[in-house]
Amino acid sequence: MLSFLWNATRGYPLRPWASPYLRWRMETYWGLHADEITAREFFTFSWRHRQELLRFLAWAGRMHRRA
Fold first, then answer.
1. In terms of residue numbers, what domain contains 43?
2. pLDDT at 1 > cutoff 80
3. Among 21, 35, 42, 65, which is disulfide-ready with 17 (CB 3.0 to 4.6 Å)?
4. Is 32 left (phi over 0), alpha (psi -120 to 50) or beta?
């Protein structure tokens, strides 16, 4: 689970909202343009969708262990 977060924020571990990968995923999921995502919008999104994000991270962890 943590390995996915580390890889998804590669190069931006202290500023995950600046990660191109996470911005792209939020754009795909939320519909907000990736260039317009701010730290506030990132954390608002993360808080509102925390159950779904935790479920995804658990799934990613299971897939990583199987690989």
1. 2-66
2. no
3. 42
4. beta
Q: Above 80 in pLDDT, residue 6?
A: yes
List all residues 6 or more positions away from 18 whose beta carbon is below 8 Å from its beta carbon: 12
For the residues 11-39, what does the mean pLDDT come to? 91
Residues 4 and 53 sit within 8 Å (Cβ to Cβ): no
- Can you spell out the DSSP letters for the chain? -HHHHHHHTTT-TT-GGG-HHHHHHHHHHH---GGG--HHHHHHHHHHTHHHHHHHHHHHHHHHHH-
